[in-house]
Design goal:
Length: 247
């Protein structure tokens, strides 16, 4: 019996990368997991297969978090499948990096629709469905929210907004025993990192990281697993950097 036995978790954007690692880890700890995906059904089913082969239980549910009207259906499906909800991990997100003069309205709307509105209304739906014993909400933000490097003004702004919501929702939902925390990964080995940063930039990141490597999705998942467990019952409203010491 894992420390999350009997719990049900929704992980948004869980078909690959950090989200997939979180889904696998929570399942390994005993949670039944709803693996949300937007478009990558095959990848989501691979995650389900991996969880099942490891002895866990999971189901894939499609919902595009940029579409407000699809969000309630994700939670309704989770309740129909498992009858309860204890954990929400708001992982789904998109990133586009351009200098100020090249930012388009479409780029702005896409990132805010998924990264901010999606988190807000997914959290709203989760709070409706948590039981009397409370629940856990984890928002995946980014070190970019504080570092704000050049060319990331829209993306960094979305993640800063999520960190503000984390603190506000923690204060609001605390009386119901719902904790709300954010995990802010640093440079992490994902498809997005590989697409955006060339080899020389990666070498520079490693050189600036005290622990001497790029993070893995599993590094992030381990911290999330702690925060949704009872061991973290006295932690709420926090933004926890998981970045190998990179500043």
């Amino acid at each position: 019996m894992g420390r999350l036995a009997g719990k049900v978790a929704i992980v948004t954007g869980a078909s690959r990368g950090i989200g997939a690692a979180i889904a696998r880890r929570l399942a390994a700890d005993g949670a039944r997991v709803v693996v949300n995906y937007s478009a990558s059904e095959e990848a989501a089913r691979q995650v389900i297969t991996q969880i099942g082969e490891a002895g866990g239980e999971a189901v894939a549910v499609q919902a595009d978090l940029s579409d407000y009207w699809q969000i309630p259906g994700l939670f309704e499906m989770a309740m129909l499948q498992y009858g309860r909800l204890d954990i929400l991990v708001n992982n789904a997100g998109v990133a586009e990096f351009h200098p100020l003069g090249e930012i388009t309205q479409r780029e702005y709307e896409r990132q805010f629709d998924v990264n901010v509105r999606g988190v807000l209304f997914a959290s709203q739906e989760a709070a409706k469905r948590f039981g009397e014993e409370g629940g856990r909400i984890i928002n995946i933000t980014s070190g970019a929210a504080q570092a704000c490097p050049p060319g990331t003004s829209v993306y960094s702004a979305t993640k800063a907004a999520v960190e503000a919501m984390t603190k506000s929702h923690a204060a609001e939902l605390g009386p119901r025993q719902i904790t709300v925390n954010a995990v802010a990964p640093g440079f992490t080995e994902t498809d997005m990192l590989a697409a955006v940063f060339p080899a020389d930039a990666r070498a520079s990141m490693i050189a600036r990281t005290p622990l001497g490597r790029i993070g893995t999705p599993e590094d992030i998942a381990d911290v999330v697993a702690f925060l949704v467990s009872d061991d973290a019952r006295w932690i709420t409203g926090q933004v926890i950097g998981v970045n190998g010491g990179l500043r």
